[in-house]
UniProtKB/TrEMBL annotation:
Organism: Pollutimonas thiosulfatoxidans
Entry protein name: Cytochrome c oxidase accessory protein CcoG
Highest rank taxon of the organism: Bacteria
TM helices/strands, residue ranges: 54-73, 93-122, 179-196, 216-233, 360-379
UniProt entry keywords in alphabetical sequence: 4Fe-4S, Electron transport, Iron, Iron-sulfur, Membrane, Metal-binding, Transmembrane, Transmembrane helix, Transport
GO molecular function, one term: 4 iron, 4 sulfur cluster binding
Domain 4Fe-4S ferredoxin-type: 277-305, 310-332
GO cellular component terms, A-Z: plasma membrane
């Protein structure tokens, strides 16, 4: 392991520094040799330098929180079962006290709509915050880079190691890194599969090497994807594969809080001695140390303006603040603020006020309405579903006792976690009676979180009805929990033969 040399704050003479160029998506050249060197270093393979500061601590906190949830959630138990399990084989989704069936796909669709609106809202307010702090690609890249730094050292040590010819030492270091990466990737892949297949059984199957072929396949697939994306692809995923990077520009405007270089304050940039009064010398606050480029995980220069490759991680904010501290200048040369704040010289409180603009209010209102509707609908969800299927083989017939009989099948789904005792009744025709075909009763038991197909017969006295179809209603009533009653009324038709 090795550490970085002390920060050189006087890298190039001021005279060699070009004037600041307006923000552009593609850097158009004209940079100092020092920055060109830094950029050529990072544009091949990117070797981000480690950084500490407020936003680095936030990123670590988000890694810890998201991973505690991701790795821990499948091990939580609820009512003697896995609390969160998307059981594809049984076609049931367990989410704590809720059991969703394929018929509940509307809730998943609404959840996607909520996620989309939340993304629009947060992007309109604060750019790619999700990318910088909570996106799995960023989070796993952070974890893998942390391992890499612990084993190979910081930026310069990694560059030197990669430039060295292969030796036993290099092989040992690289093998150690990949061993730890593969362990993390394997754990991540296994955990991911544990959301779709009971994780305790999965753990036992893994120990005894008795998993099924599909479990092996998906586990290896996700482990490989994690290893490849976080170990090798890294920023390329954010730059070239992520669609969000491409369409974020339509959601961001001049009032969005994004990581911004204050060119008014920073230009003209250039190296200088701490002892000179740079303002008197006609210089801006940027000392052109290129550290903001060296720490950037996507290898861009934020001084070129907002670029779609910027994931808003704030690493350049942290490092620039340390430079400003060393130079005894005010912090915030690079900061989270809006483009308008820089061009119009707005204060942070004025910028914050402008956050509440029409598009943000529209997104917030829509999101609030959809979330309220979603929660209300879930809270008042009827846990009993009944579908009436007419028996097409026996439309209607006269049976002993002078009765007309129709046969139906009731497809009953109990989505609650309590067994249901249900009472059946039929109305719409005088003296209509309903009984289960197997047991001859008007009550049915449906176990917790299960479904049942119940054949029933419905009878009415012959001679009281005209031949043809008569509309009827089949009612199912039951209780679940301590005192909640469920009722489902389904329409069907009763056929009277000639
Ligand atoms: S913006 Fe800050 S970190 Fe970047 S080169 Fe200028 S002084 Fe250095
Ligand atoms: S420019 Fe700054 S905020 Fe954007 S990705 Fe690079 S380091 Fe992160």
């Amino acid at each position: 392991m090795s550490s970085e040399p002390p920060v050189d704050l006087n890298p190039v003479p001021a005279a060699a520094v070009p004037a600041w160029q307006p923000p552009r998506v593609t850097p158009a050249g004209g940079k100092s040799p020092h920055v060109e060197k830094a950029l050529s270093d990072v544009r091949g393979k990117i070797y981000p330098r480690s950084v500490s500061g407020l936003f680095a601590r936030w990123r670590v906190a988000m890694v810890v929180i998201t991973q505690l949830i991701f790795y821990g959630l499948p091990w939580l138990q609820w009512n003697d079962r896995q609390a969160v399990l998307f059981d594809l084989a049984a076609r049931k989704f367990y989410i704590f006290g809720m059991v969703l069936w394929p018929q509940d796909v509307i809730y998943l669709a609404v959840l996607l709509v909520i996620s989309a609106f939340a993304l629009f809202l947060f992007t309109a307010m604060a750019g790619r915050l999700f990318c910088g702090y909570a996106c799995p690609q960023t989070v796993y890249t952070e974890i893998f880079m942390w391992v890499e730094r612990r084993i190979e050292g910081d930026r310069l040590a990694r560059i030197r190691l990669d430039e060295q010819p292969w030796s036993l030492r290099k092989l040992r270091i690289k093998a150690s890194k990949h061993f730890v990466w593969i362990l993390i990737a394997w754990w991540t892949g296994s955990t991911f599969i544990g959301y779709f297949s009971p994780i305790r059984e999965l753990g036992m199957g893994l120990l005894t090497l008795s998993l099924g072929p599909w479990q092996w396949f998906w586990m290896v697939f996700y482990a490989f994807a994690t290893w490849g994306n976080a170990g090798f692809m890294r920023e390329a995923v954010c730059k070239y594969m992520c669609p969000y990077a491409r369409f974020q520009s339509v959601m961001v405007d001049d009032d969005t809080f994004v990581v911004t270089y204050d060119h008014v304050r920073g230009e003209p940039r250039g190296g200088r001695s701490r002892r000179i009064d740079h303002k008197e010398a006609g210089m801006g606050d940027c000392v052109d140390c290129s550290l903001c480029v060296q720490v950037c995980p996507t290898g861009i220069d934020i001084r070129d303006g907002l670029q779609y490759m910027c994931i808003g991680c704030g690493a350049c904010v942290d490092v620039c603040d340390t430079v400003m501290d060393k130079m005894d200048y005010d912090r915030g040369l690079i900061r989270y603020t809006s483009g308008r704040a820089i061009t119009d010289g707005l204060s942070q409180s004025q910028v914050r006020k402008r956050l509440l603009r029409p598009r943000v209010l529209v997104y917030t209102s829509l999101l609030a309405i959809i979330v309220a509707g979603f929660v209300f609908s879930l809270a008042t969800r009827n846990p009993l579903r009944v579908d009436v299927i007419r028996d097409r083989g026996v439309l209607g017939r006269e049976v002993a006792g002078g009765m007309i009989e129709n046969v139906y099948r009731l497809q009953m789904i109990n989505t609650s976690e309590s067994p249901l005792t249900l009472k059946l009744s039929a109305t719409g025709v005088p003296e209509l009676a309903i009984l289960t075909a197997d047991e001859g009763t008007d009550t049915v038991q449906v176990d917790a979180a299960s479904n049942r197909l119940v054949p029933v017969v419905v009878r009415a006295p012959a001679g009281t009805l005209t031949p043809g179809l008569h509309e009827i209603e089949l009612t199912t009533v039951g209780n679940y929990g301590s005192d909640r009653e469920v009722t489902v009324v389904e329409r069907s038709s009763f056929f009277v033969p000639r």
